[in-house]
Amino acid sequence: MVAFRVLRLLRVLRLARVLQHLPELMVIVRGLGIAIRAIAVVLSLLGIIVYVGAIIFRGILEGTALGAMRFPNVPTAMGTLLLDCTLSGSRGTPLIREAYQEGIWYAAALLLFVLLANVTMMGVLAGLLVQTVKTVAEVEKEEKSIRELVNTMEKLWNHVLNVDADGNETINEAEFRSLMAIRQTARILHHMDVDVEGLVNLSSFFFDQKDGSLGRKDFLKMVLDLRGSKKATVKDHVETRKFLFAELTRVIHSTVAEARGKAEEERH
């Protein structure tokens, strides 16, 4: 018996290996796991609707042939509403026709229940599952993109270290020009969706801001900021305002100092 249980366990492990080679299936499974609480809430609400509907139809159809056959008590009424209205592929059409023979208001009441339980609640459940799976797929895609980006950045920094002539693990503007002359570097930057021409044109500005040399963090930040998919954030706008304020303050102070110097020279 123990041997058979071990063999069954090995079959489960094989199934787990197969699932690893089917990422789309894993996305669906993870989406179901994430949405399990919301699914339970929707199903609970659906159960309440079926229970309340069973009580109502048990009362209003009492004394009719349809009530005696389909709604004799609350449990049977719940089964009828659940199987013939909520989970029915024909959306309760036969039952509504039977109710129409008893009276148009009975058929209208059953139609209202079908619209609420089948069309609305089951539609909400389907939409919830679709949205959850979509979100999980987007997260998986983003995580994969981040992993690829990290690996690509490591490759790019290795190229930087190869052109680092002084071995101080920083890159100056001359070393940057040598780096950009390597064809492999251009391929890596294109893979990262970086505007190579814009990077070259703006490199002098970045190096001037960092006293002529960039470390690993500053260099990779410069590359990431020039990606085509990079969107401006509030932080970027605040940093721009801070930079402009500092530059204007420096220009004003230098202008005032020059004016004072000229004034003193004229006095002497």
What can you tell me about this protein's structure?
The protein has about 270 residues and is mostly helical. The protein has 2 domains: about 1-145; about 165-260, no CATH class. Helices cover about 80% and strands about 0% of the residues. The protein has helices at about 1-20, 25-35, 35-60, 65-70, 75-85, 95-100, 105-160, 175-180, 185-190, 195-210, 215-225, 235-265, and strands at about 170, 215. The protein has a two-stranded antiparallel sheet. α3 packs antiparallel against α7. The longest helix has about 60 residues, at about 105-160. The radius of gyration is 35 Å and the shape is elongated. The mean pLDDT is about 75.
What's the SSE blueprint?
Elements: H1 2-20, H2 23-34, H3 36-60, H4 65-70, H5 74-86, H6 93-102, H7 104-162, E1 171-172, H8 173-180, H9 183-191, H10 196-209, E2 213-214, H11 216-225, H12 234-267
Antiparallel strand pairs: 1-2
